[in-house]
Structures are given as structure tokens and as C-alpha cells.
Amino acid sequence: MAKLPPFPGTTGRRDWRTAFDAIKKLLANGDDTTQVFRIMRALNVGNAPINYARLIATEQGGRIAYDQVELAQRFSDPAFVASFAPGTVGAAYRTFLETTGYSADGLVEVSRLVPSEDDLAHPYAWFGRRVRDTHDIWHVLTGYKADESMGEAALVAFSYAQVGGLGWALIGSAAALKSMRVTGSKLFAKAVWEGYRNGRKAKWISGEDYLELLHEPLDAARERLGIVTPVAYLRAQRELGPALASYLSTQKAATAAAAPAIAPERIAA
Predict the structure, then answer these.
(1) H/E element, 265
(2) Residue 30 class from Cβ within 10 Å (0-12 exposed, 13-18 middle, 19+ buried)?
(3) Which of these, 103, 104, 111, lies nearest to 39 by C-alpha position?
(4) Could you tell me if 104 and 78 are in contact, meaning their C-beta atoms sit under 8 angstroms apart?
(5) For residue 130, is it within any domain?
(6) pLDDT confidence of residue 212
(7) Structural domain contains residue 261
(8) Please, which residues have CB within 8 angstroms of residue 31's CB and are 6 or more apart in sequence?
(9) Long-range contacts of 87-92 (CB under 8 A, 24+ apart)
(10) Does any domain span residue 1?
């Protein structure tokens, strides 16, 4: 694979001071999503050229890169989100938005609180936006809950396996290590490790045409992409309970503790 030049104007140096400051704040308050983007900016240096090169080397990647569809704009369009047939990835994404209250443009707004090159008119910046804007689609595909610390940490590990970037690795590792002290078990950490292993096994999802993927039946998409049932994650959900599974978020843990237990969704192997 050809090696592409670095992002113009960047030094190529990682900012570990900022990363450690941000991870400390994130572990103290898991609801502070801004710290996630600080960590990404500080450590995922040189990641965009590698992944962009990988994209355009795929069969559909050249066309996808040429079209440069801004996915956040599509995902924020109610008519677009409402257009998907029952049982599809898009329909599951629609349900995700309705049940969590999250939105694509909300994630964009949070990301812009941290200075970055994401809004530049550059192919690497476009690819970075693409990864950001499909984060919740990955939640849908993998079955990892977004409104839960463990689900986010497991998806972070899955993402590290898929697209690289030491920022993902730092967040997943730190959350897993702290979980052993807070929960008194290795269940949370095992779920995170499983997320990494499952990400390694799966097809490279960033090479997908998401506008086509959203119309695909959810179970068929998971099978085609090699996304397997996260057994350790589901076990940890059952045994830890909702409160400990969201130990990083005081607000979510308190809500979970007050809510009746609901059996976690199982995805196809």
C-alpha cells in the first residue's frame, strides 16, 4: 500500500501531556465527551493518512472518497433516517436515536469544542469526520450500548483494532484497568479485551459504503462483516448489573440503579 504524505502543517508529534490530562478528567467524569476528542487529537497523529490510503485501495474506496459524502448531514436529516425498512441497519439506527436521544449533529458539536483540522477541506479531514459520524452506526452493528460505560469502552477497543490510533487504545485500557478496582472483578476488562479481538476479526468497516449498508438487513450485515456476538460483554452486563457497567458515569450509573433490569439484546454470531 502506498504511503501518503502527512496532514499539512502537522508536526507528527504526539501530545502526551494533553492526553494524560484528558484521560484523568474522562475517568473522573465519563459524561465529559469533550475529553475523548482531546485525546484523539493528541494521540491519533498520522492515523488519517494511513486509513485514507487503505480506503482508496479498496474496490469501492476510490468512488467513496471521490463522492466525499458528509454523513453527519445525511444522518441529521429526519426524512433520510425515516426512510429505512424494518429490520435494516438503518431502522436499527433510527431506533438507537429514538431510545438514546443522541444525534449525529450533537456529536459534531461536541467534537468542535476541541480545536482540530476536522473541518478543513482536505481528504484526511473528511475521512476523520467519516469515522466520527459513523461511531453510532458501529454501536448498532456491534451491539455495544452507547449509554453505558462498558459498551463505550468495548467499542473503543473495537475501534482501535479497526482504525488504529493510540487515543482509542489509551481510553479503552484506562477504563478497563480502573474497572478492576471499582467493580472488584475482571468482567468489564474482559469485555473490553473481547471488543479489541472482535474488531480484529471483523471486516474493515470503514471501507463500507454506509449509504448502502444502512439498507442491508441487520443480521445479514453483521454476518457479512464478521461481527460476532460479544459473549464476554453480555456476561459482564448480566453479572455486573447496569450500575457497575456504567461506573464511569455518575448520572448513568444512578439512572441504571433505579431502573428495572432489562435483558440485553443478543446479536447474531
Answers:
(1) none
(2) buried
(3) 111
(4) no
(5) yes
(6) 98
(7) no
(8) 249, 250, 251, 252
(9) 87/217, 87/218, 87/219, 88/214, 88/215, 88/216, 88/217, 88/218, 89/137, 89/140, 89/141, 89/213, 89/214, 89/215, 89/216, 89/217, 89/218, 89/221, 90/214, 90/215, 91/218, 92/140, 92/218
(10) no
DSSP category for residue 261: P
In the Cβ-directed half-sphere of 105, how many Cα atoms lie within 13 Å? 5
Looking at the domain assignment, is residue 265 inside a domain? no
Which amino acid, 167?
G
165 grid coordinates:
490510533
Which segment of 130-134, 188-192, 225-229, 259-263 scores lowest on mean pLDDT? Answer: 259-263
What's the total number of domains in the chain? 1
DSSP string computed for 79-91: HHHTTPPTTBHHH
The answer, yes or no, to whether residue 180 has pLDDT greater than 60, is yes
Dmax over CA atoms of the chain, in Å, equals 53
Q: Which domain holds residue 90?
A: 16-256
Task: Please write the tens of the pLDDT for every residue from 219-262.
Answer: 999 999 999 999 999 999 999 999 999 999 865 555 555 555 43
- Phi, psi (deg, nearest 5) at residue 232: -65, -35
